[in-house]
Amino acid sequence: MPSTRTIVSAAASTTATFMVIRSIARDYLPREVQSYFALKLRDFISRFSNELTLVIDEYDGGLNQNKLFKAAKLYLEPKIPPNVKRIKINLPKKETNISLSVEKNEEIVDVFNGVHLKWKFESKSTPSEVINNRPFNGYRVKTDAAYFELSFHKKNKDFVLRTYIPHVLKKSKEISQKKKTLKLFTLGSQRGLIGDKSIWQSVNLDHPATFDTLAMDFDMKKMIMDDLERFLQRKEFYRRVGKAWKRGYLLYGPPGTGKSSLIAAMANYLKFDVYDLELSNLLGNNDLRHILIATENKSILVVEDIDCCIELQDRLSRARAANPDFLIAGYEQQKQYHITLSGLLNFIDGLWSSCGDERIIIFTTNHKERLDPALLRPGRMDMHINMSHCTPSGFKMLASNYLGIAEHPLFVEIEKLIATAKVTPADVAEQLMRNEAPEFALSGLIEFLESKKRANDGSEAKEAEERAVQAEKKVLEISEE
Fold this sequence. Notes:
InterPro entries: AAA+_ATPase, AAA_N_dom, At3g28540-like_C, ATPase_AAA_core, ATPase_AAA_CS, Mitochondrial_chaperone_BCS1, P-loop_NTPase. Its cofactor is Mg(2+). This protein has helices at residues 4-28, 31-46, 67-76, 157-179, 218-232, 235-241, 259-270, 285-293, 306-322, 326-329, 331-334, 341-349, 373-376, 392-403, 411-421, 425-432, 438-480; strands spanning 51-57, 87-90, 99-102, 107-112, 115-125, 129-130, 140-141, 144-153, 183-187, 200-204, 246-252, 273-276, 299-303, 359-365, 383-386. It is of the alpha/beta class. It folds into 3 domains: 32-179, no CATH class; 183-386, 3-Layer(aba) Sandwich (Rossmann fold), CATH 3.40.50.300; 392-480, no CATH class. A hairpin with an 8-residue loop joins strand 2 (87-90) and strand 3 (99-102). The longest helix has 43 residues, at 438-480. It starts with a helix and ends with a helix.
């Protein structure tokens, strides 16, 4: 039996010989020949291995990115082990969250339902390509083709394809949603083609409003949050009953009652982008359809002061009826405002409303009574939220937000005044911002509420007097007859 020294010597000699052969092959054999022998060697070794490897390329053979590659990159980010030596770090433009990814040849081991899976990030050089687009005509560009290798035992092939890969896709969506930087979109000055996303221009939506900070009754906040959560969980329900996966909310009440803050809180809660649609900027029903197609899923579409938009339509209709030459004489004025009510209704719940999933549509108005009943029925505006004047519970939330206090001896007097003063949360917030000392801020608020109450009492007395005068006139008219 050969000695240990003999075995070690033979192994060292074999290794040295292999290294020399590899060096010669690398220096003198063409790359194609090297690739051929490497492939044959892998095939030979794989015959004795129980391991199966799936290759996930970055691109699908064209210019489109492979969705599974992007999903794998997101899925693996929180699973990067501490012993990894090289990590890529990236902060995309207009984003606030840093992205991490492994470098070439780094491995990540994942265990799912007791199955061990090994991920490895690789890249390979591709032949240089000539660019034929201006202004880079004739330039040669050399890029690396990135891909992931997913290795596991052959017996788990069906499990990986049917269970693990869908799990990766699902988790990556959740991670992407958590990392998402919210955007506020407004209509751009240029109109693109149907479905062209450049119709919209965006800025980061960094509004601090949350349901925790809203000056709103607790029961109302809970009702809205429960409704939103139920909406998110009912994708299959909407599909089963044959309805588009969308939900409509009407926010109504006087100015300053927090309608915009509620919209921001809903966006932050859902992690949905917000599309601010100004109907007066559109050129008709066709333009409205283009706008709808160009919005993404998981978004909130907001039309503020919907009653004002409808009033413009009414004025246009009356002008057309009064002046037959209106179509010519007033073209520049009327071309901005010819979205019809039927077009708006079709936009909310017609066939075009089904062009997308997980969408929230919000209308706001200061005068609900002015709206056409057809706009308000369930299926269009599913939930009507009354943004009322400030309530005692709303005041306590504002005091906590602005002054950092939960109780104070002056609260009792303030709550009594708020119940009758008819002030908005914006009015109360403005008073609380005037002094950081709770005692002075609350005293100033009491003076403000008392003055508002006197003004309200005076206006109510005047209205009562006018009603009495009108009633007296009617009595006199009847007696004279």
